[in-house]
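Q: Sequence in, structure out?
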Amino acid sequence: MTELSLKKNSFAGRPGPMCLIVMDGVGIGKQDDSNAVYLAKTPTLDKLFGAKLYTQLQAHGKAVGLPSDDDMGNSEIGHNALGAGRVFDQGAKLVNRAIETGSMFEGEVWKKAVETAKNNAVMHFIGLHSDGNVHSNTAQLYAMLKEAAKEGVSKVRLHILHDGRDVPEKSALTYIEATETLLAEINAQYGYDYRIASGGGRMITTMDRYEADWTIVERGWKAHVLGDARAFASAKEAVETMYAEDEKAVDQYLEAFVVADADGKPIGTIQDGDAVIFFNFRGDRAIEISQAFEGGADFAKFDRVRVPQVFYAGIMQYDGDLHLPKNFLVAPPVIDRTFCEYLCAEKVSMFAISETQKFGHVTYFWNGNRSGYIDPRCESYEEIPSDRIEFDKAPLMKAEEITAWVEGALASGKFKFGRLNLANGDMVGHTGNMEATIKAVEKVDECVGRILAVIEKLNGIAVITADHGNADEMWTEKKGVRTARTAHTLNPVPFCIYDPAYNGEYEMATVDHPGLANVAATVLNLLGYEAPEDYCPSLVKFN
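A: Exactly. Output:
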């Protein structure tokens, strides 16, 4: 490994610390009543957005390594870009290419899964059932189903997790209909047995992250593996029944279900000798269920009751350091030389902090999809446990606790650089609750203001940005009908520099198509270093 180092630049930085604040989900949208950021009272952001050292960044599509500019960004790839300083092809793009070229199906893992399933067993697919292209894409699932059928896999069971978050909040039936149509075509053509076997809403079934609530994973395990959940004759019947029982029900919180035969027996429990493919390409909500499948006798997160001996694979590897899962169909991007690796090489002391919901983003994803410290001698990571509650019920989340910790850390004099994520705009925005999201954004504005006051007192610099939009577009309207929008947006995000000692030493640079990956070089410049030559250009130029 090449030893990393940075050169000093003409700007020596400020005597005090630098703080990089990520306002998760706070984008720049239309100035109308669909925009919670616009409707909120935000005196701090108003000043920053109107200041000289301000611009807007792309946080979606090709700017963050996704296939097209129609693809929304997300927190994972956003923090990858912020930390890496360069644009890397991301999950959806990598998987699409592997399918288009056929390399996925030529790999040993796919071949092993097919061989396993053809041995009088079943091939199971588990994952988020939508084309939101944030965690998964049904187009990729369909390609695998067609290939499995072509290669002679005669029995397949799908375990579908309703989305309603990266796609419209009540769209599960649309995806179920499309999938059932494909399954019927395969069954008719080959005489096979391909069926949906279980499922549930993504926020309460299977897809927990950062160990926030293992009961979510347990609920999925019971449905997918054990067949222990409310039974219906079909996935369509399950969703229609839950809609009818609660007119306010939305897909992401629909309860777990199993599909059962006429005798009430679940049709798709996972058994010894089966193959299981988890088809989410994004890692954060795939790690824990993967641990449940691959964990040995010492696994103690919940009682699995029965642990089938299966061939388990992810569509990608979700954690390179933990080698989880052991088998995967497509290799993740190799992200090297993050800007914090360079800062560690220069022995710059730094901290990273967020609450549980975004802690992995300011650590694992920021560091190029790697767990743990780069160098514990230089770094301190702080996780504030998130509340286990629907976030519109507590829109302030843990912003107060994070801010208080940051104020103390900055004032301590121990750190030259710190990064934090305030998750409110994203997590509350995902609920579709406008009133709660406005409160969330206002709390973020208050907390940013408090941190800037400390920066001013210490003669430091702050950089304020976001990883993607969300709270900036809370509903859409078609033919006069408003529909709650719970997904991320395609809007740009703000980029602000707060430098109380600023005296014209630099100015905002003209950069073609500026995006999140330009932030790393900018931060290095403002800390007094030249950025590596292959980094995306800095957003500032020195006079």
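DSSP finds 17 helices and 19 strands in the chain.
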